[in-house]
């Protein structure tokens, strides 16, 4: 009789706990939607800025005056779009280009993680989450590039949408990798608690 009573109490406690969790979920989901909307607004705000507002070249010139490089730079060259970049011939343009594309990767990696994480929290299937996150990244990146063409001395390029998608893929892959590592570190603790 005691065993049955204990099982009923545990089942009732489990139901109440599940209901409590279910009540909290909409708030977390709304918070994730607000974070996504805020991040998209930040991205689009940067799209409206002119090249002069965003350039890091004045800072690079000041920094290079303080730090003297005592060796010849390697001759790294590549073409992106219609422009040629050379580390030796135009180092400031080269470094600024790398900085800008890294910023693209980071910004869209965060966006993809926010979308993916929000959908996974709602128990949506993993592949559906990935597809939805990357589709939204592509749409927002396309709008971002469209806005940029109206900003002074800025150009829009379909290549940048590709860079943004790479950032989204990288962000999701990193997020999933961190989750796997976290679960592996967490699972031995659970099993040791159960054994005790």
UniProtKB/TrEMBL annotation:
Family annotation (InterPro entries): Phosphotransbutyrylase, VanZ-like
Residue ranges of domain VanZ-like in the record: 33-176
Transmembrane regions: 26-46, 102-119, 126-143, 163-182
Xref: Pfam families: VanZ (PF04892)
Keywords on record: Membrane, Transmembrane, Transmembrane helix
NCBIfam families: vanZ_1
Name of the protein described by the UniProt record: VanZ family protein
Organism of derivation: Paenibacillus pabuli
């Amino acid at each position: 009789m005691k065993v049955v009573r204990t099982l009923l109490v545990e089942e009732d406690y489990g139901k109440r706990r599940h209901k409590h969790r279910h009540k909290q979920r909409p708030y977390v989901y709304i918070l994730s939607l607000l974070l996504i909307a805020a991040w998209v607004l930040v991205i689009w705000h940067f799209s409206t800025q002119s090249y002069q507002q965003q350039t890091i070249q004045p800072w690079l010139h000041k920094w290079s005056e303080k730090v003297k490089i005592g060796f010849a730079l390697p001759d790294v060259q590549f073409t992106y779009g219609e422009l040629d970049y050379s580390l030796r011939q135009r180092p400031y343009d080269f470094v600024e280009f790398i900085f800008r594309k890294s910023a693209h990767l980071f910004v869209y990696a965060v966006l993809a993680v926010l979308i993916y994480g929000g959908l996974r929290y709602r128990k949506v299937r993993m592949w559906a989450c990935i597809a939805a996150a990357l589709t939204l990244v592509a749409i927002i990146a396309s709008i971002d590039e469209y806005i940029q063409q109206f900003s002074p001395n800025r150009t829009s390029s379909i290549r940048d949408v590709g860079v943004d998608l790479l950032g989204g893929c990288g962000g999701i892959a990193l997020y999933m990798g961190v989750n796997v590592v976290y679960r592996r570190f967490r699972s031995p603790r659970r099993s040791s608690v159960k054994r005790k």
